[in-house]
User: What shape does this take?
Amino acid sequence: MLILNRHYMPIRVTSVKRAFSLLYRDLAEVVHVEDGQYLSYNFDSWCEVSHLKHRFEPHAYDWVRTVHLSIAVPRIIRLMLYDRLPVRNVRLNRRNIFARDENHCQYCGKRFPTSELSLDHVIPRSQGGRTVWENLVCCCLKCNVKKGGRTPDQAHMKLITKPVRPRRSPVLNLQLSKDRYRSWKQFLDHAYWHVELR
Assistant: This one.
């Protein structure tokens, strides 16, 4: 679930449990996009809307069920009092590199499940290569063995895409490709173009 600050600027993605805790304590409100309009709901009014959504479009939402009611999981919430922006560092980890490269081996171009991929240092560590965004790529096991401890030039292999540091979380980019998270896109695009550069 996407969390916005008080000024509708995106700050992070959170769990459903944390979001409902914020909503229930009136620290946040639901921001819902319907027919191109942005509507705000507190916890009680969102429960009422959820009752109708459950009757008429149950497959359009994920649900949290209690003994007495079913509540639609909102896709966006806005914090009522928080107005700061977080530092925007994309964490360098295996999951984000696989997401950035979309599980494609950067040497043969084929797509693989994560269990059949490894990470490759373009300039091997044995030759002074560092563990940074610009030197790590997804690589299938076969290409990784073929390349060994050499650079792509030394191994007569060609990189399909030059590795770069992503501007925002690659996992978030994968979520934006799904219809149910389309409402996030406007807030994230706005943040990209309007956040002050330092």
Observations:
- The two ends are 28 Å apart (CA to CA).
- The domain at 94-147 is CATH 1.10.30.50 (DNA Binding (I), subunit A).
- The helical segments are 16-24, 43-56, 94-100, 141-147, 170-176, 182-194.
